[in-house]
Amino acid sequence: MAAFRYTHAVVCRIPLSLRTRGEIELDEAKRQHEAYVRLLRELGLDVIELPPDEALPECVFVEDTAVVCNGTALITRPGAPHRAKEVETIRVVLKKELDLPIIEMSDAKAKLDGGDVLFTGREFFVGISQWTNEAGARAVAAAFPEYPCTPIKVPDPKHLKTYITVGGPDLLCVGAGKEAQEVLKRMEREATFSYQTLTLPEDDAANVLYLNGTLVHRSIDEIPQSFKVFSEKIDYPRRSVNISQLAKTSCGLSSSCILVRRSRHIRNL
Predict the structure, then answer these.
(1) Could you tell me the maximum CA-CA distance found in the chain, to the nearest angstrom?
(2) 20-48 residue pLDDT tens
(3) What is the pLDDT of residue 1?
(4) Which bin fits 127, alpha (ψ -120 to 50), beta or left (φ > 0)?
(5) Active site residue: 12, 149, 173, 257, which one?
(6) 159 flagged as catalytic
(7) Is 257 noted as a catalytic residue in this protein?
(8) What distance in Å separates the CA atoms of residue 262 and residue 128, rounded to the nearest whole number?
(9) I need a surface site. Which of 45, 77, 133, 176 has the fewest CB within 10 A?
(10) pTM reported for the whole predicted model
(11) What is the rounded average pLDDT for all residues in the chain?
């Protein structure tokens, strides 16, 4: 599906200050992040790596700062006020380095974290959470009017993509837990299109990346039961990576990159 073909990824290295956000083994987190970035490159992406910003402990979680679709970037307004400055660097990278058209959120009351925005290739679902409000969902709808956009209430303090992500063409990966299943039911009631679902025994397994024909999920050490489900049910390429440290304070795999499909410009030499 063309919607999940990408040319670039934006990531940010881990600041030492991230250890103020939880029981994170920083050296291990850095090793895991390096393996994650290496995997993105192996899947054909040009990766733009930003330096860590010690003043912004959560800067590694770049997903929350922008929603990129069809070569256009909506700059978000993260729900946690201390994260507001994270968008400034991302805006510059997306505009100057990737030459993307930029849309700003006009409603001063809008809150939006990218971790609450799920694009299925056919429509958007926006989690209404501690971090994202109805005005934020309206900003997504206004930025990408060619797609249906539906707000979905999610239990605090988590993002929508903690519970459900896209695992393939018209396939949703969802945890087996009660909260995840309730969020799925809300989505199914409101959805414009129909989807297959892959229910995973461990809720932590639901956050995956699907890009360039490959499903990226967490390692067998982290999700042993769900790893078995993936191996039995998915008949296209799969890769796994351990993200256990960063996942302690984020959605998981999706949180640490912004995926972009950029048109290949022919430059005159």
Answers:
(1) 58
(2) 877 899 999 999 999 999 999 999 999 99
(3) 60
(4) beta
(5) 257
(6) yes
(7) yes
(8) 29
(9) 176
(10) 0.95
(11) 95
